[in-house]
Amino acid sequence: MRIIIHGVGAIGGVVGAALALSGQEVLGIARGRMLDAIRDKGIALVSVNGRQETSFPCVAHPSEIDFRPDDIVLLCVKGQDSVAALEALRAAGLRDQALFCCQNGVVNERVALRYFPNVHGVTVMLPGTYIEPGEVITHGAPCYGMFETGRVPGGTDAADLALKQALERANIACFPSEAVMESKYGKLLLNLGNTVDALLPQGAEQAPFTKRLVAEAKTVLRAAGIVWRDVGMDDPRRNEFMRVVPLEGAARAGSSTRQSLARGAGSVETDYLNGEIALLGRLHGVPAPLNARMAVLAAELVAAGKGAGGMSVEELEAALVA
Ligand SMILES: NC(=O)C1=CN([C@@H]2O[C@H](COP(=O)(O)OP(=O)(O)OC[C@H]3O[C@@H](n4cnc5c(N)ncnc54)[C@H](OP(=O)(O)O)[C@@H]3O)[C@@H](O)[C@H]2O)C=CC1
Ligand SMILES: CC(C)(CO)C(=O)C(=O)O
Protein backbone atom coordinates (compact mmCIF):
# COMPACT_ATOMS: atom_id res chain seq x y z
CA MET A 1 0.00 0.00 0.00
CA ARG A 2 1.22 3.46 -0.94
CA ILE A 3 -0.17 6.60 0.68
CA ILE A 4 -0.47 9.57 -1.66
CA ILE A 5 -0.71 12.97 0.02
CA HIS A 6 -2.41 15.58 -2.17
CA GLY A 7 -1.40 18.95 -0.72
CA VAL A 8 1.77 18.95 1.35
CA GLY A 9 1.20 21.81 3.80
CA ALA A 10 0.59 21.74 7.55
CA ILE A 11 -1.55 18.59 7.70
CA GLY A 12 -0.22 16.83 4.60
CA GLY A 13 3.33 17.71 5.64
CA VAL A 14 3.04 16.43 9.21
CA VAL A 15 1.21 13.27 8.15
CA GLY A 16 3.55 12.64 5.21
CA ALA A 17 6.71 13.21 7.24
CA ALA A 18 5.48 11.10 10.18
CA LEU A 19 4.49 8.26 7.82
CA ALA A 20 7.83 8.45 6.00
CA LEU A 21 9.70 8.36 9.31
CA SER A 22 7.73 5.23 10.26
CA GLY A 23 8.88 3.46 7.08
CA GLN A 24 5.61 3.83 5.15
CA GLU A 25 5.81 4.41 1.38
CA VAL A 26 4.54 7.96 0.76
CA LEU A 27 4.18 10.02 -2.41
CA GLY A 28 3.39 13.72 -2.19
CA ILE A 29 1.66 16.06 -4.63
CA ALA A 30 2.97 19.51 -3.73
CA ARG A 31 3.42 22.90 -5.28
CA GLY A 32 5.30 26.15 -5.01
CA ARG A 33 8.03 26.70 -2.49
CA MET A 34 7.11 23.57 -0.49
CA LEU A 35 7.67 21.38 -3.56
CA ASP A 36 11.03 23.04 -4.26
CA ALA A 37 12.14 22.72 -0.64
CA ILE A 38 11.23 19.02 -0.32
CA ARG A 39 12.96 18.17 -3.60
CA ASP A 40 15.99 20.17 -2.54
CA LYS A 41 16.48 19.06 1.07
CA GLY A 42 13.56 16.94 2.25
CA ILE A 43 11.21 17.94 5.04
CA ALA A 44 11.72 18.51 8.78
CA LEU A 45 9.05 17.46 11.27
CA VAL A 46 9.18 19.48 14.50
CA SER A 47 7.28 17.91 17.41
CA VAL A 48 7.52 16.82 21.04
CA ASN A 49 10.12 14.39 19.74
CA GLY A 50 12.37 17.20 18.53
CA ARG A 51 13.32 17.99 14.95
CA GLN A 52 13.45 15.00 12.62
CA GLU A 53 14.59 15.28 9.03
CA THR A 54 13.08 12.98 6.44
CA SER A 55 12.11 12.85 2.81
CA PHE A 56 9.56 11.38 0.45
CA PRO A 57 9.17 11.70 -3.31
CA CYS A 58 6.94 14.53 -4.51
CA VAL A 59 5.38 15.30 -7.87
CA ALA A 60 3.91 18.62 -9.01
CA HIS A 61 0.76 17.15 -10.55
CA PRO A 62 -1.28 13.90 -10.36
CA SER A 63 -0.64 13.34 -14.10
CA GLU A 64 2.90 12.30 -13.13
CA ILE A 65 1.57 9.32 -11.11
CA ASP A 66 0.88 5.76 -12.27
CA PHE A 67 -1.88 4.94 -9.81
CA ARG A 68 -1.93 1.47 -8.24
CA PRO A 69 -5.13 -0.35 -7.22
CA ASP A 70 -4.13 -0.34 -3.54
CA ASP A 71 -3.11 3.32 -3.33
CA ILE A 72 -4.78 5.37 -0.63
CA VAL A 73 -5.14 9.10 -1.35
CA LEU A 74 -5.25 11.67 1.46
CA LEU A 75 -6.76 14.94 0.24
CA CYS A 76 -5.02 17.58 2.37
CA VAL A 77 -5.74 20.79 0.45
CA LYS A 78 -7.94 23.59 1.79
CA GLY A 79 -11.64 23.32 0.90
CA GLN A 80 -11.42 26.05 -1.76
CA ASP A 81 -8.81 23.93 -3.61
CA SER A 82 -10.72 20.64 -3.53
CA VAL A 83 -12.48 20.75 -6.89
CA ALA A 84 -9.27 21.46 -8.83
CA ALA A 85 -7.47 18.68 -6.97
CA LEU A 86 -10.28 16.16 -7.49
CA GLU A 87 -10.55 16.95 -11.20
CA ALA A 88 -6.80 16.53 -11.62
CA LEU A 89 -6.86 13.19 -9.76
CA ARG A 90 -9.64 11.85 -11.98
CA ALA A 91 -7.99 13.08 -15.18
CA ALA A 92 -4.79 11.33 -14.07
CA GLY A 93 -6.58 7.98 -13.73
CA LEU A 94 -7.63 7.67 -10.09
CA ARG A 95 -10.80 5.56 -9.95
CA ASP A 96 -11.92 3.18 -7.17
CA GLN A 97 -9.08 3.72 -4.73
CA ALA A 98 -10.03 5.02 -1.28
CA LEU A 99 -9.89 8.81 -1.02
CA PHE A 100 -9.78 10.33 2.46
CA CYS A 101 -10.74 14.00 2.93
CA CYS A 102 -8.33 15.11 5.68
CA GLN A 103 -9.96 18.53 5.80
CA ASN A 104 -12.06 20.80 7.93
CA GLY A 105 -15.54 21.63 6.71
CA VAL A 106 -18.27 19.19 5.77
CA VAL A 107 -18.72 19.61 2.04
CA ASN A 108 -15.51 18.12 0.61
CA GLU A 109 -16.77 14.56 0.94
CA ARG A 110 -19.98 15.37 -0.93
CA VAL A 111 -17.99 17.07 -3.68
CA ALA A 112 -15.55 14.14 -3.89
CA LEU A 113 -18.44 11.68 -4.29
CA ARG A 114 -19.22 13.32 -7.64
CA TYR A 115 -15.85 12.11 -8.87
CA PHE A 116 -15.08 8.93 -6.91
CA PRO A 117 -17.12 6.11 -5.35
CA ASN A 118 -14.92 5.31 -2.34
CA VAL A 119 -14.83 8.50 -0.28
CA HIS A 120 -13.95 8.67 3.42
CA GLY A 121 -14.24 11.60 5.78
CA VAL A 122 -11.53 12.37 8.30
CA THR A 123 -12.00 14.48 11.41
CA VAL A 124 -8.55 15.97 11.80
CA MET A 125 -7.47 16.92 15.31
CA LEU A 126 -3.87 17.95 14.70
CA PRO A 127 -2.46 21.37 15.56
CA GLY A 128 -0.26 21.67 12.49
CA THR A 129 1.82 24.61 11.37
CA TYR A 130 3.28 25.37 7.97
CA ILE A 131 4.96 28.74 7.61
CA GLU A 132 8.46 27.91 6.32
CA PRO A 133 8.81 25.72 3.21
CA GLY A 134 10.46 22.41 4.07
CA GLU A 135 9.39 22.51 7.72
CA VAL A 136 6.17 21.49 9.44
CA ILE A 137 5.33 21.56 13.13
CA THR A 138 2.82 19.70 15.26
CA HIS A 139 1.99 20.77 18.80
CA GLY A 140 0.08 17.53 19.43
CA ALA A 141 1.19 15.20 22.24
CA PRO A 142 1.60 12.40 23.12
CA CYS A 143 0.34 11.59 19.61
CA TYR A 144 1.01 14.08 16.83
CA GLY A 145 -2.70 14.09 16.04
CA MET A 146 -5.92 12.21 16.49
CA PHE A 147 -8.08 11.28 13.50
CA GLU A 148 -11.55 9.82 13.17
CA THR A 149 -12.24 8.21 9.77
CA GLY A 150 -15.13 6.52 8.03
CA ARG A 151 -16.86 6.06 4.72
CA VAL A 152 -19.32 8.66 3.53
CA PRO A 153 -22.27 8.49 3.93
CA GLY A 154 -21.52 5.89 6.61
CA GLY A 155 -19.73 2.75 7.72
CA THR A 156 -16.10 1.70 7.66
CA ASP A 157 -14.12 -0.65 5.43
CA ALA A 158 -10.70 -2.24 5.02
CA ALA A 159 -9.18 1.07 3.90
CA ASP A 160 -10.06 2.67 7.27
CA LEU A 161 -8.32 -0.20 9.02
CA ALA A 162 -5.27 -0.04 6.74
CA LEU A 163 -4.95 3.72 7.26
CA LYS A 164 -5.42 3.36 11.02
CA GLN A 165 -2.56 0.85 11.19
CA ALA A 166 -0.26 3.04 9.09
CA LEU A 167 -1.11 6.21 11.05
CA GLU A 168 -0.65 4.55 14.42
CA ARG A 169 2.82 3.33 13.39
CA ALA A 170 3.49 7.01 12.67
CA ASN A 171 2.28 8.22 16.12
CA ILE A 172 -1.09 9.53 14.92
CA ALA A 173 -4.07 8.07 16.78
CA CYS A 174 -6.88 6.95 14.51
CA PHE A 175 -10.43 5.83 15.28
CA PRO A 176 -12.60 4.39 12.51
CA SER A 177 -16.20 5.50 13.03
CA GLU A 178 -19.51 4.34 11.58
CA ALA A 179 -20.73 7.95 11.47
CA VAL A 180 -17.72 10.12 10.77
CA MET A 181 -19.75 13.09 9.51
CA GLU A 182 -21.24 13.57 12.98
CA SER A 183 -17.79 14.33 14.35
CA LYS A 184 -16.97 16.45 11.29
CA TYR A 185 -19.94 18.69 12.12
CA GLY A 186 -18.63 18.83 15.71
CA LYS A 187 -15.26 19.90 14.32
CA LEU A 188 -16.95 22.52 12.13
CA LEU A 189 -18.21 24.20 15.31
CA LEU A 190 -14.62 24.40 16.59
CA ASN A 191 -13.48 25.95 13.32
CA LEU A 192 -15.96 28.83 13.39
CA GLY A 193 -13.33 30.71 15.41
CA ASN A 194 -10.57 30.24 12.80
CA THR A 195 -11.31 33.53 11.08
CA VAL A 196 -11.69 35.40 14.38
CA ASP A 197 -8.19 34.14 15.16
CA ALA A 198 -7.02 35.29 11.73
CA LEU A 199 -8.53 38.78 11.98
CA LEU A 200 -7.55 39.79 15.52
CA PRO A 201 -4.06 40.52 16.81
CA GLN A 202 -2.41 37.63 18.68
CA GLY A 203 -3.41 37.60 22.35
CA ALA A 204 -6.75 39.40 21.77
CA GLU A 205 -9.80 37.98 23.54
CA GLN A 206 -11.48 35.72 20.95
CA ALA A 207 -13.96 33.79 23.12
CA PRO A 208 -16.80 36.34 23.14
CA PHE A 209 -16.87 36.24 19.31
CA THR A 210 -16.49 32.48 18.88
CA LYS A 211 -19.20 31.81 21.49
CA ARG A 212 -21.70 33.89 19.49
CA LEU A 213 -20.72 32.24 16.20
CA VAL A 214 -21.08 28.76 17.70
CA ALA A 215 -24.42 29.55 19.37
CA GLU A 216 -25.79 30.81 16.06
CA ALA A 217 -24.43 27.73 14.26
CA LYS A 218 -26.00 25.29 16.74
CA THR A 219 -29.41 26.86 16.12
CA VAL A 220 -28.86 26.44 12.38
CA LEU A 221 -27.69 22.80 12.67
CA ARG A 222 -30.68 21.92 14.87
CA ALA A 223 -33.09 23.51 12.37
CA ALA A 224 -31.39 21.57 9.58
CA GLY A 225 -31.77 18.31 11.54
CA ILE A 226 -28.01 17.77 11.52
CA VAL A 227 -26.54 15.65 14.31
CA TRP A 228 -23.07 16.53 15.57
CA ARG A 229 -20.70 15.04 18.11
CA ASP A 230 -18.39 17.08 20.32
CA VAL A 231 -14.73 16.63 19.42
CA GLY A 232 -13.25 19.21 21.81
CA MET A 233 -11.63 18.50 25.16
CA ASP A 234 -14.88 16.94 26.42
CA ASP A 235 -14.09 13.97 24.18
CA PRO A 236 -12.29 11.70 26.69
CA ARG A 237 -9.95 10.41 23.96
CA ARG A 238 -8.47 13.89 23.56
CA ASN A 239 -6.81 13.99 26.97
CA GLU A 240 -5.33 10.54 26.51
CA PHE A 241 -4.15 10.83 22.91
CA MET A 242 -3.82 14.42 21.75
CA ARG A 243 -3.36 17.49 23.85
CA VAL A 244 -1.98 20.77 22.49
CA VAL A 245 1.38 21.40 24.17
CA PRO A 246 3.95 24.21 23.92
CA LEU A 247 7.18 23.45 22.04
CA GLU A 248 10.35 25.32 22.92
CA GLY A 249 11.40 27.57 20.05
CA ALA A 250 8.36 26.74 17.92
CA ALA A 251 5.30 28.84 18.66
CA ARG A 252 1.97 27.75 17.18
CA ALA A 253 1.23 30.17 14.38
CA GLY A 254 -2.51 30.23 15.05
CA SER A 255 -5.35 28.54 13.22
CA SER A 256 -4.94 27.15 9.72
CA THR A 257 -6.83 30.21 8.43
CA ARG A 258 -4.41 32.58 10.14
CA GLN A 259 -1.51 30.63 8.65
CA SER A 260 -2.93 31.08 5.13
CA LEU A 261 -2.92 34.85 5.65
CA ALA A 262 0.53 34.79 7.25
CA ARG A 263 1.89 32.96 4.18
CA GLY A 264 0.07 35.30 1.79
CA ALA A 265 -1.65 32.24 0.31
CA GLY A 266 -4.18 34.39 -1.59
CA SER A 267 -7.28 32.59 -0.31
CA VAL A 268 -8.83 31.39 2.95
CA GLU A 269 -11.22 28.58 3.80
CA THR A 270 -13.87 30.69 5.56
CA ASP A 271 -16.56 30.11 2.90
CA TYR A 272 -16.40 26.40 3.84
CA LEU A 273 -16.45 27.02 7.60
CA ASN A 274 -18.57 30.03 8.64
CA GLY A 275 -19.89 30.07 5.06
CA GLU A 276 -21.31 26.57 5.54
CA ILE A 277 -23.43 27.87 8.43
CA ALA A 278 -24.56 30.82 6.29
CA LEU A 279 -25.54 28.37 3.54
CA LEU A 280 -27.43 26.04 5.87
CA GLY A 281 -29.16 29.00 7.49
CA ARG A 282 -30.37 30.22 4.10
CA LEU A 283 -31.51 26.73 3.07
CA HIS A 284 -33.46 26.20 6.27
CA GLY A 285 -34.83 29.68 6.82
CA VAL A 286 -32.79 30.40 9.96
CA PRO A 287 -30.88 33.68 10.04
CA ALA A 288 -27.10 33.30 10.48
CA PRO A 289 -25.94 36.91 10.11
CA LEU A 290 -22.79 36.59 12.23
CA ASN A 291 -21.35 33.64 10.35
CA ALA A 292 -22.40 35.15 7.02
CA ARG A 293 -20.63 38.38 7.98
CA MET A 294 -17.42 36.51 8.91
CA ALA A 295 -17.31 35.02 5.42
CA VAL A 296 -17.62 38.50 3.88
CA LEU A 297 -14.96 39.95 6.18
CA ALA A 298 -12.51 37.19 5.29
CA ALA A 299 -13.11 37.70 1.57
CA GLU A 300 -12.58 41.47 1.96
CA LEU A 301 -9.36 40.88 3.86
CA VAL A 302 -7.96 38.60 1.17
CA ALA A 303 -9.04 40.97 -1.62
CA ALA A 304 -7.30 43.86 0.15
CA GLY A 305 -4.12 41.75 0.37
CA LYS A 306 -3.99 42.26 4.14
CA GLY A 307 -2.12 39.90 6.44
CA ALA A 308 -3.30 38.33 9.69
CA GLY A 309 -4.23 40.28 12.81
CA GLY A 310 -5.12 43.59 11.22
CA MET A 311 -8.44 44.20 12.99
CA SER A 312 -8.95 45.38 16.56
CA VAL A 313 -11.57 43.83 18.85
CA GLU A 314 -13.60 47.05 18.55
CA GLU A 315 -13.40 47.03 14.75
CA LEU A 316 -14.53 43.39 14.58
CA GLU A 317 -17.39 44.12 16.97
CA ALA A 318 -18.50 47.02 14.78
CA ALA A 319 -18.10 44.99 11.57
CA LEU A 320 -20.32 42.21 12.94
CA VAL A 321 -23.23 44.53 13.64
CA ALA A 322 -22.83 46.41 10.34
N1 LIG B 1 -3.33 23.35 10.04
C1 LIG B 1 -4.06 22.80 10.99
O1 LIG B 1 -3.70 22.87 12.18
C2 LIG B 1 -5.31 22.09 10.67
C3 LIG B 1 -5.85 22.08 9.39
N2 LIG B 1 -6.97 21.33 9.14
C4 LIG B 1 -7.58 21.29 7.81
O2 LIG B 1 -6.74 20.51 6.96
C5 LIG B 1 -6.87 20.96 5.61
C6 LIG B 1 -5.48 21.34 5.12
O3 LIG B 1 -5.06 22.45 5.89
P1 LIG B 1 -3.54 22.88 6.04
O4 LIG B 1 -2.65 21.72 5.95
O5 LIG B 1 -3.49 23.77 7.22
O6 LIG B 1 -3.38 23.75 4.71
P2 LIG B 1 -2.05 24.25 4.03
O7 LIG B 1 -2.41 25.43 3.22
O8 LIG B 1 -0.97 24.36 5.04
O9 LIG B 1 -1.66 23.03 3.09
C7 LIG B 1 -2.31 22.72 1.89
C8 LIG B 1 -1.24 22.60 0.84
O10 LIG B 1 -1.82 22.10 -0.36
C9 LIG B 1 -1.26 22.84 -1.43
N3 LIG B 1 -2.13 22.70 -2.59
C10 LIG B 1 -3.36 23.23 -2.79
N4 LIG B 1 -3.85 22.84 -3.97
C11 LIG B 1 -2.90 22.07 -4.55
C12 LIG B 1 -2.81 21.40 -5.78
N5 LIG B 1 -3.79 21.44 -6.68
N6 LIG B 1 -1.68 20.69 -6.04
C13 LIG B 1 -0.67 20.63 -5.15
N7 LIG B 1 -0.70 21.26 -3.95
C14 LIG B 1 -1.82 21.96 -3.66
C15 LIG B 1 -1.16 24.24 -0.88
O11 LIG B 1 -0.31 25.03 -1.66
P3 LIG B 1 -0.31 26.65 -1.47
O12 LIG B 1 0.40 26.90 -0.16
O13 LIG B 1 0.43 27.11 -2.66
O14 LIG B 1 -1.75 27.08 -1.42
C16 LIG B 1 -0.60 23.94 0.51
O15 LIG B 1 0.80 23.79 0.46
C17 LIG B 1 -7.81 22.17 5.66
O16 LIG B 1 -9.13 21.75 5.37
C18 LIG B 1 -7.71 22.63 7.11
O17 LIG B 1 -8.85 23.33 7.55
C19 LIG B 1 -7.54 20.54 10.09
C20 LIG B 1 -7.05 20.53 11.37
C21 LIG B 1 -5.95 21.35 11.78
C1 LIG C 1 -6.54 23.19 15.30
C2 LIG C 1 -7.81 23.93 14.94
C3 LIG C 1 -8.98 23.39 15.72
C4 LIG C 1 -7.76 25.36 15.36
O1 LIG C 1 -6.53 25.88 15.43
C5 LIG C 1 -8.01 23.76 13.49
O2 LIG C 1 -8.68 22.86 13.07
C6 LIG C 1 -7.41 24.68 12.49
O3 LIG C 1 -6.44 25.36 12.78
O4 LIG C 1 -7.95 24.68 11.36
From TrEMBL:
SUPFAM superfamilies per UniProt: 6-phosphogluconate dehydrogenase C-terminal domain-like, NAD(P)-binding Rossmann-fold domains
EC number: 1.1.1.169
Keyword match NADP: yes
Gene Ontology BP, a term: pantothenate biosynthetic process
Gene Ontology CC: one annotated term: cytoplasm
Top-level taxon: Bacteria
Pfam families reported for this sequence: ApbA (PF02558), ApbA_C (PF08546)
GO terms, molecular function: 2-dehydropantoate 2-reductase activity; NADP binding
The protein's annotated pathway: Cofactor biosynthesis; (R)-pantothenate biosynthesis; (R)-pantoate from 3-methyl-2-oxobutanoate: step 2/2
Domain Ketopantoate reductase C-terminal per the UniProt entry, residue ranges: 198-298
Residues of the Ketopantoate reductase N-terminal domain: 3-140
UniProt keyword list: NADP, Oxidoreductase, Pantothenate biosynthesis
Reactions listed under catalytic activity: (R)-pantoate + NADP(+) = 2-dehydropantoate + NADPH + H(+)
Keyword Oxidoreductase: yes
Entry's family note: Belongs to the ketopantoate reductase family.
Name under which the protein is recorded: 2-dehydropantoate 2-reductase
Organism this protein belongs to: Salipiger abyssi
